Amino acid sequence: MSKRDYYEVLGLDKGAGEKDVKKAYKRLAMKYHPDRTKGDKELEAKFKEVKEAYEVLSDPQKKAAYDQFGHAGVDPNRGGGGGHQDFGDIFGDVFGDIFGGGGRRGGQQRPQRGSDLRYNMELTLEEAVRGISKEIKIPSLVHCEQCNGSGAKAGTEATTCGTCHGQGQVQMRQGFFAVQQACPTCRGKGKIIKDPCSKCHGEGRYERTKTLSVKIPAGVDTGDRIRLSGEGEAGENGAPAGDLYVQVHVKEHEIFVRDGSNLYCEVPIGFVEAALGGEIEVPTLDGRVKLKIPAETQTGKMFRMRGKGVKSVRGGAVGDLLCKAYVETPIKLSDKQKDLLLQFNETLKGSQGNKHKPKEEGFFAGVKKFFDDLTK
After folding, report:
1. What is the pTM of this model?
2. What is the rounded CA–CA span in Å between residue 23 and residue 10?
């Protein structure tokens, strides 16, 4: 007999996402699980079908193969039961988050690794390009040296919890299910501290502001993260500490704009230098350099200065500095200067005038055509 479509089995539309698959499985597993159906073979078969559909559609690789090729795209040997995994295994995986997790595994909960921390660091462009070492202050939970992280006063030790007998979990029945959850007496630790440490009050760690020296490598940019292993919060009961992530943000520069390994800047050029050509000084991160301006330079012309950009922290060649010319119109002219400009402008007129203004003729020809087209 041919198999039913897995999406149909779970009551889902084609291509349903991971959350919908898990939600549908929880609902149907509750309905058909053997613990509830009391030996009903027909319902047990339905549960196997539901379980098989979930095993395929909850696995991204298997789901992709099934979406493309149907049943032929997944392992044909899986059959109606999906291999040798028992009902309890897969049922516990899905419902663990409802009832506290880890039900079938039992045993004392492991001490949790400390939380990771994040620090936002602002850098100037010069600091980011050249690299720098900076001291930062981080408020964090640190390992209590007085009790060595145990939480118990010096000379004493924690005792085994009488409720869970050191297991860290207790079993409770909820309807048809026997589930395990963290022991309410010891909060899953399996131990009771009767005489807590005076410094950390039985927690095994306490809050302290620590000062760290962070070495920022040359070439970092906004969005880069620097990981300091073990500099996050201390873990519980001596568990490893988390990590500290330094998030880099480069402030805007008053002259340069960075794009990857290249730098951009706008360079003002005098009216005379732009017309006749010349040489000007332009800034770089390494100091001033000479830039040769050819005659008849127009606003918007880009000059590339190779090797005057940035070397990325990820390697590769040093980028370039690209200078965009901006021709400045003279302002606050004297009467004499205005008169000289008018005389100069007269020399540009006549039959040869257009050769001095290469874009003007094309622009006004386009304007004329635009208005002519409107009146048609």
Report:
1. 0.58
2. 9
